[in-house]
Each structure stands twice: as structure tokens, then as C-alpha cells.
Amino acid sequence: MIRFLRSSLCVIGSVSAILALSACGSDQDPTFDIKASTTTKPADGVSTSTTLDPNLKVFIITVTGNKVDGGVQESEVQLGDKVRFEITSDTTNEVHVHGYDLTGKLEAGAKTFVEFITDKPGIWEIELHEGKVPLAMLKVTG
Amino acid sequence: MSLGAILAHGVGGRTDLPLPIWLFAYGAGSALVISFVTLHILWRKPRLDSDALGSPGPSFLERASKPAAFITRLFGLVMFGVVIGAAWFGDQSAAANISPIVVYVLFWVGLQIASLVFGNLWSLLSPWNTLALGIEQLRDSADRSPCANNATRFTSLRLAKHRLYPMEPHLSAGALRGSADTRAADKPATHWPATIGIAGFVWLELCYHDPSSPRVLALAISLYAIAMAFVVIRFGRERLNTADAFAAWFEFLATMAPVFRSENGELRLRWPFAGLAAMKTRPGSVALVMVVLGSTAFDGLSRSTWWRNTTVKYLGWEATVVATIGLFWTIVIMYAIYVGAMTTAEQISKTERRDLVAAFLSSLVPIALAYAVGHYFSLFIFEGQQALALASDPFGRGWNLFGTIDWSVNYRMISTDMIAWVQMIAIVTGHVVGVVVAHDRAVSIFKIKVATKSQIPLLVVMVSYTVGGLTLLLGA
């Protein structure tokens, strides 16, 4: 896992991509916001911890019995957007974002956040590592 | 699942953005216009038959070809060794093993494109061909030792034999029937074994649930190598040309290349695509082309959100079965469209359908390649980069042979706009070439009036393939 994370950070290089592995993961992580503020500069409210970043695209995925509730959806974002997947699974597994090479542990019942800035255009699969169950398609245009 | 998803586990999982609707409209529209304009203004006499003969290549090309061929054969053997070695003994995670990328991306996608430019490279790269040739030459030199003159006599005999059977460029209905009869005399080699081989390959790639598993690939390659060894032992090395699935398919593609070797061994040049007119069909050739065409169409279909959501509940072998059914029916539908059109053409032209089916087949080869380029061009560009990285450590031993192990895929090397244009241009170009070749074949077989009418059903097929291909790229 650590090796994987390290290599993926290596791969992504200039882009700050963070993985909040547990339910207490915060979207106000400073390493994350550095890049975000350079790409888009919201006029106000960016520093208050109570306001959600207006440029953050949040996608909520619930997995029951190794299947996504509501079927595999296509999530469309623009290149350079900040995205966050909030994944809740009823079983322990691992989530994997292709191309961005991010993985996150899914604990049964707990919420997992996967956050990153989209810097690679294309349609990318997000899937459960075990069983290779597709969860979502991230469509990055631009 | 899609090829992207296959290789994926760790590296890929990328699908192209859908083609913008306006680009689609341009592509489909121009395909239609070109098709019908062709019927009216193109030549009224066959031209490609003579073009297909080409002209002798410059002498430096002939001189360079020997060492080049030797190096290519050696390279093929080395690559085969690396792939089979990595597949059996390398890191068993697909992302850290070079074999899936070499097989599905460099070999299957890359070599299809390369065959268009450089001709039949596989005949040199093919490890079974090279090994069989090596054994042949060892045996020859053993035979030669008692009587030194034998070798020269052998060569002149072989040349004489070639002159007895000159190339038959005329694929006219009469010639087709004639040549079929001559072949029947010495047990004709069919394309059926090749069709089964290609079907097995695309099944593994698109249907089997874990196609990039190095162990599975190792097993598949080994079984295939044994089958090829059997072909060589039982029928001789020449038979590889038709029995090796890849030799058969790449030979079809290579007819489009500007460089080729005539049957008497001379290196010649000709206009790109002209060689399609001299493409030799055999029993099973139609099925071979249809399997390749259908597999690409199915790959496009299986990337759609609709397909994913319909099949998401199937995992493992169940997914394999579902995908197998999907692939099977895609091929059957493509096949049925073509044969249906030929039946109609048969009634219009009063020519036997069997002859028509074979004569027009070459016009579908550029379309099949266009499909492949349209679907796999970006995969080749992106995953190809991954191959460069893995080349430094093909067996997953922590090596860094070329210092490239840390290279990562640059997904912005080419823009998404560029990808969309390449896809559209590939499909429309394939269509244009297909239509032109079909026209030429038609005027070669029929009188001009009948020729025009006989083409209409085939045009409908091509337009539907082209629009279908573009629609699949449009995404669902």
C-alpha cells in the first residue's frame, strides 16, 4: 500500500493528490489546496472551514453486496476540477481509480474519501479491487 | 470488458472521450457523399489489377532487405523469449509484467498499423516461422555436405517451380473458380484454422474475465506455439502462412502496404492500398475478416455504459460467458449483413454469390483496420509508453536495464481533440478505400452497368459499418 501510494505520488508528480483513508479525512488539507487555489480562485469563503469548497465536485457512491446502488454512473467533470468520491461499502474492500492510480481501503460501514485533481482527460474506471466490480466512470473532458 | 479495463489493473482503464456530435456528422456525411459520388465518376475500367503488380523497387532496398530481415527475425525471437519468459516466470501482477502490453498493444494493435506501412512484418517476426526456417537450413546444410552441388540445384529447381505458378492478379469470377480448382488438386490450404486462431485470441482479449493475467497468457501462448509446431511438422513451414492466425490476418493487411515481395521473390513497390486488388481469398477468409471486424465492434459495444450496467452483476466466469455471447452475436450480425448484401448483389448481377463474397472481401480489410485504429489508437499511444517503462524490468525483478523504469504514462502527450480527429479520419479513410476497391472489383468482374448496380448493396453495408463504427465511438 505504502509502496503503491509512493509510486502513485511519484507518477502524478506536480499534482497534489491525497487520499483520506478514514472517515475523519478532511477536505481542507493544506497540501491539497495549494494547487486548487492556483487553478481556480474562488472570490470568498475559501478559508472558512464550514463552507464546502465551491469547486469541489462530490460524488457519493454506496456499495451493497458488491454492487453499486443505482448502477454504474458516469460522473462528468472538467479537466483541472477537484473531485471527491465518498464511498460507503457494506463489506471490506479496496477502491481503485484507474489512470490516477489511487487506491483507498474500504472498511465495512465506514465512509472513505478519495480526492484528487483531474489532470488526465479521458474516461476512467473506478472499481473495487477485489472482484473488479465497476463503481463509476469518471469522464474528464477538456 | 474493454481492452483498457483489461490491461488496467493498475495502469490503464482509460476510455476515449466520445466523439463530438458535429464531428460524427461530418464523418458519416462525407462517407455517404463519397460513396455515391464514387459510383458515378470513378473509372470505368479496372485499374488496380495492374497497379497491384507494382514496379521493381530500387536496388538499395533489395540490398538492405537481407540484413534488415535478419535483424527483424532476431528481434522477433528475442521478443518472443521475453514475452513467454515474463509470462511464465515474471511478476504475476499484470501491471508489473510486460507480456500483456506486448501482446495486446504492441503486437496486436501496433503490428496491424505497421503492416499497413511496412508490409508483412509478421512473416519475419513470427518466432515459429524463424525457428522452422532455422531447422530447415540446418537440415539443408546437413543434406548438402555429401554433395556440394545439391544446394544450387535445389535453388534453381525452386525458382523454376515458381515460374510455373506465376502470380494470378485477376480475381475475376472466372479466375477465382479456376484457381480454386488448381488448388483442390494439392489439398488446398484454407483460412479456417486461422479463423479459429483469431477467434481464440479475441475471445481471450475481450471475453475472458482475466485476459491480462500473465499465467493465462503464458498458457495461451504455449498452447499456440505447440499448435504451430504441429502445423510445421505435419504440413511444412509454408503452411504457417495460412494456418497461423496472425500470419493470415497480417498478410491481408500487408496487401495495402506500398512495399511487397512478389511470388518470385522480387521486392517491388506499388501504390498504397493497390495490392488489395490482388488479395487472395481462400475458404474461411470471409469468416476471418468478420471475426476481426466483429471483435472491434464488440469492444466498442462493451465500453458503453449500457453494456456495463447490463452486465455488472456478472463476475468471473459468468462475465466470461456473457461476453462470449455478446462477441458471438456481434460477429454473426456483421457476417449476416455482408452475406445478405451479397445475396442481393447476386440477384442483381446474376453471378454466383460465392464468387461475389470472395471478390469483394478485400474491400472490407481497410475498414477492419480503420476500426482497429479508431478504437485502439489512444491505447497504443498511452500503453505503449508503459511498455517502454516495463522494458527496463520485464520480469519484475527490480531491474532497470534502460533506466526507464520510473517513466510514467503521459496522458496529455496527445490531446483528446487529436484523438477524436484521428479516429474520425481513420474510419472515413478506411471507408473511402473500401468503396474504391469495391468499385474496381465490380468493374473488373461485370460490365459497367451491372457493376454500378451490383455495388449498391455493398455500399449500404459499408455505410452501415462506417456509421456503426462512428456511433460506437460516440459512446452510449
Backbone shape of chain B: globular
Derived from helix and strand composition plus strand pairing, the structural class of chain B reads: mainly alpha
Strand order of the largest sheet of chain A: 1-8-5-2-3
Overall structural class of chain A, as computed from helix and strand content, comes to mainly beta
Q: Strand content of the residues of chain A, in percent?
A: 35-45%
Largest sheet of chain A: 5 strands, mixed
Can you describe what's shown?
- The complex is a heterodimer of chains A (142) and B (476).
- In chain A, the strands form two sheets. Chain A has a five-stranded mixed beta sheet, covered by helices on one side.
- The radius of gyration of chain A is 15 Å and the shape is globular.
- By secondary structure, chain A is mainly beta.
- In chain A, 15% of the residues lie in helices and 42% in strands.
- In chain A, β2 (56-64) and β3 form a beta hairpin.
- By secondary structure, chain B is mainly α.
- In chain B, 70% of the residues lie in helices and 2% in strands.
- Chain B has helices spanning 3-11, 21-41, 48-51, 59-89, 99-118, 122-125, 127-144, 150-164, 173-185, 192-206, 214-235, 240-243, 245-254, 285-302, 305-311, 317-349, 353-359, 365-390, 416-445, 448-474, and strands at 14-15, 55-56, 259-261, 267-269.
- In chain B, strands 2-4-3 form a three-stranded antiparallel beta sheet, covered by helices on one side.
- In chain B, β3 (259-261) and β4 (267-269) form a beta hairpin.
- In chain B, α18 (365-390) packs antiparallel against α19.
- Classes of the chains: A mainly beta (142), B mainly alpha (476).
- β9 of chain A pairs antiparallel with β1 (14-15) of chain B, so a sheet runs across the interface.
